Automatic annotation (TrEMBL):
<feature type="domain" description="Porphobilinogen deaminase C-terminal">
    <location>
        <begin position="226"/>
        <end position="292"/>
    </location>
</feature>
<dbReference type="GO" id="GO:0005737">
    <property type="term" value="C:cytoplasm"/>
</dbReference>
<dbReference type="GO" id="GO:0004418">
    <property type="term" value="F:hydroxymethylbilane synthase activity"/>
</dbReference>
<dbReference type="InterPro" id="IPR022418">
    <property type="entry name" value="Porphobilinogen_deaminase_C"/>
</dbReference>
<dbReference type="InterPro" id="IPR036803">
    <property type="entry name" value="Porphobilinogen_deaminase_C_sf"/>
</dbReference>
<dbReference type="GO" id="GO:0006782">
    <property type="term" value="P:protoporphyrinogen IX biosynthetic process"/>
</dbReference>
<keyword id="KW-0627">Porphyrin biosynthesis</keyword>
<comment type="similarity">
    <text>Belongs to the HMBS family.</text>
</comment>
<feature type="domain" description="Porphobilinogen deaminase N-terminal">
    <location>
        <begin position="4"/>
        <end position="212"/>
    </location>
</feature>
<comment type="function">
    <text>Tetrapolymerization of the monopyrrole PBG into the hydroxymethylbilane pre-uroporphyrinogen in several discrete steps.</text>
</comment>
<keyword id="KW-0808">Transferase</keyword>
<feature type="modified residue" description="S-(dipyrrolylmethanemethyl)cysteine">
    <location>
        <position position="241"/>
    </location>
</feature>
<dbReference type="InterPro" id="IPR022417">
    <property type="entry name" value="Porphobilin_deaminase_N"/>
</dbReference>
<dbReference type="Pfam" id="PF01379">
    <property type="entry name" value="Porphobil_deam"/>
</dbReference>
<protein>
    <recommendedName>
        <fullName>Porphobilinogen deaminase</fullName>
        <ecNumber>2.5.1.61</ecNumber>
    </recommendedName>
</protein>
<comment type="subunit">
    <text>Monomer.</text>
</comment>
<dbReference type="InterPro" id="IPR000860">
    <property type="entry name" value="HemC"/>
</dbReference>
Length: 309
């Protein structure tokens, strides 16, 4: 008999994702174990009105949940892989990476017009430099403005008329059951996804062998390997999800094919590359090296300087 506490943020998307993991895990644990969902209110959730970077960045949500794991207040934590920093605290690990859902981004526009048909100067809401850069590379005549908040808040801002369109991850839309709100799924060619987008990370204590064993059964090997290539690529630039970097890998036969982009937020420069290979980390490292040779370092230094001002 064991009660396993599963922690997550309290946003609707986070709760749906966690319930999904609990459901799958239920079939893979001893019958007398009980799984309990714990919705955690993090400081990040309480101070949504301040610029997140001023209070420690997006990693703040994650850090508080990780502390709860280390303190044994919870036994498992479910996160969007895309929000996870490169390094985990000592003692924690991903017990499972779950099967990736559709990794692409999508456009929700009030007029129902697609990205290519939006009128000149139309305002697209996104706070992601990756999305901003790729939108402007494709349509330099559009305006991009930041939008914060959870999915419900962002959708409300669109409907209130603050933006003509917003860009969101299709995986999140599907989990919310919002497919009918989507105007267009953006192709990989136009909008290469974020590293880890569409996959969930189930985090636990490294020495909790019972849990590690159960999680192994819901791990998806293909997602684990492709995401590993993407994350190695991203972290070679010493940057997190706030940099204009995209990376997406698939398994083709028994090889990993990784595509990556490093862009200037203006969209004027988008460095692109592709690598194939059997070893995920090596593929990630080599693609990062290719893009460094094309000038990625200098480009990102410019972005970082812009942030400090
Ligand atoms: N940036 C926030 C975030 N983190 C994870 C998702 C949902 C999709 C996923 O799990 O990759 C979203 C929403 C979005 O970007 O539209």
């Amino acid at each position: 008999m064991r009660t396993v506490t599963v922690g997550t943020r309290r946003s609707q998307l986070a709760v749906i994702q966690t319930e999904w993991v609990i459901q799958r895990l239920q079939k893979n644990i001893p019958e007398d174990w009980k799984l309990e969902l714990e919705k955690m209110i993090t400081r990040g959730d309480q101070i949504l009105h301040v610029t997140l970077s001023k209070v420690g960045g997006k990693g703040l949500f994650v850090k508080e949940i990780e502390q709860a794991l280390l303190d044994e207040r919870i036994d498992l934590a479910v996160h969007s892989m895309k929000d996870m920093p490169g390094e985990q605290p000592e003692g924690l690990t991903f017990g499972a990476v779950t099967l990736r859902e559709d990794p692409r981004d999508c456009l929700l526009s009030r007029s129902g017009l697609k990205l290519e048909d939006l009128p000149e100067n139309a305002i697209v809401g996104t706070s992601s430099l990756r999305r901003q850069a790729q939108i402007l590379a494709f349509r330099p005549d559009l305006k991009v403005e930041p939008v914060r908040g959870n999915l419900n808040t962002r959708y409300k801002k669109l409907m209130d008329g603050q933006f003509d369109a917003i860009v969101l991850a299709y995986a999140g839309i599907q989990r919310m059951g919002w497919e009918d709100k989507v105007t267009q799924i953006l192709s990989e060619e136009v909008m290469l996804p974020a590293v880890g987008q569409g996959a969930l990370a189930v985090q636990c204590r490294f020495n909790d062998h019972e849990i590690m064993e159960a999680l192994q059964r819901i791990n998806d090997l293909e997602t684990e390997q492709t995401v590993s290539a993407e994350r190695t690529f991203l972290h070679a630039f010493e940057g997190g999800c706030h940099l204009p970097i995209a990376g997406y890998a698939v398994l083709v036969e028994d090889e990993i094919r990784l595509r990556g982009r490093v862009a200037h937020p203006s969209g004027r420069t988008v460095l692109k590359g592709e690598r194939k290979g059997k070893n995920p980390e090596e593929v990630g490292r080599l693609l990062a090296k290719d893009l460094m040779e094309k000038g990625a370092r200098k480009l990102l230094d410019e972005v970082r300087e812009g942030e400090e001002q």
